[in-house]
Design goal:
alpha+beta; 7% strand; 61% helix; Glutathione S-transferase Yfyf (Class Pi), Chain A, domain 2; 10 helices
Amino acid sequence: MTLRLFDFAGSPFCIKIRAILDHKRLRYERIDILSGISYLELRRRNPTRKVPALEVDGRLVIDSTEIAYALDDAHPDPPLRPADPRLAADNHVLEDWADESLYFYGLWCRWQEPEGRRLAPKTFRGPLAPVLGATVGSSARSQLAAQGIGRKPIALVRDELSRSLQSLETRLEGRDYLLGHVPYLCDFALMGQLVYLQRTPMGAALLDRRPAMTSYLDRMRALRTPDR
């Protein structure tokens, strides 16, 4: 199986897929979409124009969840989905929550919270960095406004995020992973969002005071191969 990952290093969804590929010990080529030719290829082949997108033996699979399912079908060991139906349902719900809810808090912390917004453009490198920072930032704030979180006061968003993180902290106390002693797809989704959140000033401050989540992230990182 030949794997090519259209990738953006800082994306929480790309972090999720890279971690899964590493966990399954699959070799793959990373294609940075910030290089002009790679982005043009992605636009031509992917109607969403989003990453991650994984080419599997020439066939392009888009969306991080669809990619994860495709990899799990082709390489089921170690599994991303529990065999038990109730655990499988929990796995689905938690993954979807991380991807579709927690994600917007990370986006807000990076592109709208004042300190995060000031630092965010510095994550881009090269001559196009100022243009990319301005373009991505404007797009992110438009998404946040449309979703609703971008129209809320800072204190309210911080309180909402704190409640979510405390709920995760409570769930992880005494557990290795979200569903017990085995990592599943929901864990890789959560890891991607937490790593993204941890790279913002507010996110880092909120996570650093929660030891169960800090230990959890250490365990998730340890699942990856040494050369990634």
